[in-house]
Specification:
Length: 230
């Protein structure tokens, strides 16, 4: 082989592999990036069934996409994959409460008994009852007291996966711009596989936006996207 051609072929091969990896990340959104262990330290890091066998903590994969426009820094994306739980498991022990500020996921039992000071960081519940529910309206979190978590509102919107990919990977401002186009605004909504919601956290300054995609119900796989303000 011509010695001048060899470096060129190596460069072409490297570029092709890089492009393939980029396309794969874009196709799967949060999937394919680094795993981030978000288990709390202590008894809450495992779900225990009635037979006292530990259940694996949900697998959380995190990725950050820098924005191409100046009004937002980028999008944080998390793909959460829950293991299959038995029918008689205590739902209070299933990690369901997510915090967009940290990417952490906790069960009701853990946050109430082990880490109650971090309740105010919680954003919403994802798993229990196939519902999206704002932490601020989850009465079992607060025991009749006043909630300190910021209220979160959800609005369902019908968008193709291609549109969602574009918003997540290049245009996080689209979550805010499309908020007015959502339907059935509420802080407690039921979902099914394939649904896509935009959420708004109006109590924060500036107001924060993001999205939630129900990838699969069985197994339960949900992706959360959070637009990062400048």
């Amino acid at each position: 082989m011509n010695y001048l051609m060899k470096p060129i072929l190596i460069m072409i091969l490297g570029f092709t592999l890089s492009l393939t990896a980029c396309q794969e990340d874009t196709e799967n959104l949060a999937q394919g990036s680094r795993n981030v262990l978000r288990q709390p330290v202590g008894p809450g890091d495992k779900v225990i069934n009635p037979g006292n066998e530990p259940y694996a903590y949900p697998n959380i994969i995190e990725k950050y996409y820098p924005a191409r426009l100046a009004n937002y820094q980028g999008t944080k994306a998390w793909r959460i994959e829950w293991p299959e739980y038995s029918g008689d498991i205590d739902p209070d022990q299933i990690p369901t409460f997510f915090a967009t500020s940290t990417g952490g996921l906790n069960s009701l039992k853990y946050i109430n008994s082990i880490d109650p000071l971090n309740k105010k960081k919680l954003s919403f519940s994802l798993f229990n009852g196939t519902r999206l529910k704002a932490a601020a309206v989850e009465e079992t979190l607060w025991g009749g007291g006043a909630p300190s978590a910021e209220a979160v509102y959800f609005g369902k919107i019908d968008k193709s996966l291609g549109h969602i990919k574009d918003w997540v990977t290049t245009r996080p401002s689209a979550f805010e711009l499309n908020w007015e186009n959502t339907e059935d605004l509420d802080y407690d909504v039921e979902y099914q596989e394939g649904d896509f919601f935009i959420y708004q956290i109006p109590g924060l300054t500036p107001i924060q936006y993001g999205g939630i995609r129900i990838v699969s119900e069985n197994p339960r796989i949900i992706e959360v996207y959070h637009a990062v303000n400048n």
